[in-house]
Amino acid sequence: MRRRIALVTLLALAALGTTAAAARGPASLGVAEREFHITPYAKSVKHGAVKFNINNLGQDTHNLVIRGPHHFKAKGPDVQAGERATFTVRLRRRGTYTLLCTRANHYRLGMKAKLEVR
Ligand SMILES: [Cu+2]
Predict the structure, then answer these.
(1) Phi first, then psi: what are they for 90, rounded to 5°?
(2) Ligand 1 centroid to residue 100 C-alpha, Å
(3) What's the whole-model pTM score?
(4) CATH no. of 26-117
(5) DSSP string spanning 28-74?
(6) What residue segments make up the domains of the chain, in order of their start?
(7) What is the pLDDT of residues 87-96, one digit of tens each?
């Protein structure tokens, strides 16, 4: 019985969290890209909609692909050297995600970073 009450409380808290996030709009996360690194400006974001503000500080075109739990994958735009772009994605599940660039061999050269979704 006590376990059931705890579960109901958890569900109620989860519902509150979702409503609050929807009211605020997407969280923003800056991401710098250059040869050959991806640098998110925070290590974690709250689950829900996230607006990635991508800044290509390098000399090559880069993109932003997001991989996450349960085969989640989202592909953002190509960003030309010196340009910025935004990419809004709903990250519904908590867990460890990977931000990467899939252009040419950039991933193997090091263009990947972890992002925790809490
Ligand atoms: Cu790249």
Answers:
(1) -95, 115
(2) 8
(3) 0.79
(4) 2.60.40.420
(5) EEEEEEETTEEEESSSEE-SEEEEEEEEE-SSS-B--EEEETTTEEE
(6) 26-117
(7) 999 999 999 9
If DSSP codes are grouped into helix, strand and coil, which group holds residue 25?
coil
**Is residue 67 a contact partner of residue 100, using CB atoms and an 8 Å limit?**
yes
Reduce the DSSP state of residue 15 to 3 states and report it. helix
Position 14 scores a pLDDT of 45
User: Which tokens hold the place of 46?
Assistant: 């709250």
Q: Ligand 1 centre and the CA of 62: distance in Å? A: 4
Question: Please, which residues have CB less than 5 A from ligand 1, an ion?
Answer: 62, 101, 103, 106, 111
pLDDT score of 13 more than 90: no
State in Å: Cα 117 to ligand 1 middle. Answer: 23
